[in-house]
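the two lines:
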Amino acid sequence: MATDEFGLIERFFKGTATPGIGVRLGIGDDAAVLDPGPGVELVATVDTLVAGVHFPVTACAAAIGQRALRVNLSDLAAMGATPRWFLLALSLPTADEDWLAGFSTGLATAAARYGCALVGGDTTRGTLTISITALGTVPTGAALTRGGASVGDLVLVTGTLGGSAAALAEMQRNGATRAQPAALDADYWYPEPRLTEGQALRGLASAAIDISDGLLADLGHVVRASGVGAELTLDALPLSTAAVARFGLEQTRAWALSAGDDYQLCFTVPPTRLAEVEALAGARGFQFTQIGRLAGTPGVRVRDAAGREVAIAERGFRHF
Amino acid sequence: MATDEFGLIERFFKGTATPGIGVRLGIGDDAAVLDPGPGVELVATVDTLVAGVHFPVTACAAAIGQRALRVNLSDLAAMGATPRWFLLALSLPTADEDWLAGFSTGLATAAARYGCALVGGDTTRGTLTISITALGTVPTGAALTRGGASVGDLVLVTGTLGGSAAALAEMQRNGATRAQPAALDADYWYPEPRLTEGQALRGLASAAIDISDGLLADLGHVVRASGVGAELTLDALPLSTAAVARFGLEQTRAWALSAGDDYQLCFTVPPTRLAEVEALAGARGFQFTQIGRLAGTPGVRVRDAAGREVAIAERGFRHF
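prediction for all of em together
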C-alpha cells in the first residue's frame, strides 16, 4: 500500500472496516490478517466494474459503491457462502473528494448490510475502475457449485427477472445523473445478493449459479459443467411487474432470458426434494419459482405453452 | 465471471492454477473454494499496476506478468506469510492474444516459483490494468506487523537497494521494448519477494515492512505505527553494485533512500536477538544488513559518517 493511497483509504474507507468479525489486522499494514475459524473453507471471487462499460460514468457515487459490493457478494451467494471480508482496488482519474465521500458511504452501507468488512485496498490513477475481491466462508464441503446437477432435476430461480434491464433501458432513455437513483431503478443499482437463500440451499440444491450475464448464458454454464441440458418453460419465468408495465411482456421476457445484471440465483434440485424447497420458501419467505427441468440433450431450450421451442436472438452479456 | 472472460481465463490462465495446494475448486465456478487448513490465519493483500504509471506500456508481456505477481507476494513476505492463492482482475484495451500468451506465461512462471495458484479472475475492457489479490497463511498469531517495534531496536534490510531505480532510469534512457529485458534490468522486472526471509523472521523481528515506496517512506510507516523514530547510517546502506557502477555512489544512495520498487524487507529486532538474526543469515544464506537503530524522537533521520544529519529531497513514491 503506497504512501498517499494509504491516506485516501484511511480517510474515506477505514470506517467500512469496523464491523469485521475475524479481522485480526485490517487496513494499514502490508496485508490484512484474518481468522476464518475452524471447520470452514474459504470462498473467494473477484469482479471488476469499469465506468462506461458496467455503469454510467455520471451515476450517483453512493449507488455505484452499493452496487459494486452487492454484485460481488452475489457470487458468494451462488456458492452458499457467508460474506466475511473484501478488498478494493480502485482506479480514479483524479482524487475527487466528493465522489470518494459518496462512493465510500455507499460501500460502507452495503458492507454493514451484509456484515462484511473492507480489509485491504489499493488506489491508483486511471480510468474509473472498481475491482473487488470478496472473501466468504462455507462449512467444509458444503459449497454449492455448478457441476452437481443431474438429468431430471428441477430448475428454479429466486426473485423476479428483467427488472435490472428495464431500469438500465430507462436510464439510457433519461440519462443517469449523480442524484440518488429513483426507486424504480433499484433493481439495477441495489440488486439483492441472495445470500440467505444460497446459505439455506446448502445440502439441498444440486447446483447453483448467480444470473449476472443472463439466465440462458448462466444456466448454460451449469448444464455444461454438469454434463446435462435444460428445458425451460417461457410462461413460468417470474417477471418484474414494473418492467412488464413499462416495456411490455415480450420485451421483459427477452430481458429475463438474455439480459444480465439480475443477480438472482438459478439452482437445481432433485424432484424428490422439491417439498423441502417449498417448505423453506414458506418458512423463510423466499421467492422460488420452478422454471424448467434438466434433460439429457445438451444446451438450453425454451418452450412456449404449446411446447414449441422459442428462438432466442441473444444469449447474454459478452465483454469481448 | 462473464461468458467470454471465462473463455479468456480458461484459455490463457487455467494452467497457472495447477500447482495449488488446498484448492478445492479453482477457476470456473462463481467463486473458488479454498482450504486454509488448521491453526493458521489468512493474510490478504491487493495491489494494482497500471500501464504507463507502474510499468512502461511497451514492455515485455511475460516480464509484466512476472512482476505483477512478485510485487504482490512481497506484501505477504512482509507479513511472514506463505503464499497460497491469488485472484487476477485484468483490464485490457483489446483481447491481444500475443500479449495474453506472454503475460499468462510470465504469471504462471512466477506462480510456480512461489508455489501459489490462480484461483479466480475477471477480465474487462479498459486501460491495461493488472490488479492482483494475493492470499497467504501464517501460523495463528505469528504475522509480522508494522506496529511492534521499540526504542533501541536495530533496523535491518534484506538484499541491496537502488538497483530497481537504476534499471528504471536505464529503461527510460533506452526505451523499453517488448523483448525480454536485459539481465541488468532484472532488479526492476524480477524483484525477489523475500518470502523465506519473512517466514524465518517470524517470532524474531519486532516489526517488518516491504520497501515498495522507498526506504524512508516505508520505514516511516513502521515508526509511526510503533510510536517511535529512527536514526539511519548513510554509509551502512547496502547498495546495488551495478547501480553504483552505472550511476555513481551519490545517485544510488539517493535512490536507496527514496526510490520505490526495491521490494526488500526492512525489519527491526531487539539488540539482544541480533545473534539469532546473524545465525539465520549464516545458516540460510540470507543477506541482512544493519542500517540503523530506533530512537524516541519521531521521524526518520539519516546521518553521515561524522554523525551529521543528511538532508533528503524526496521521500518516496506518491500516487496522487
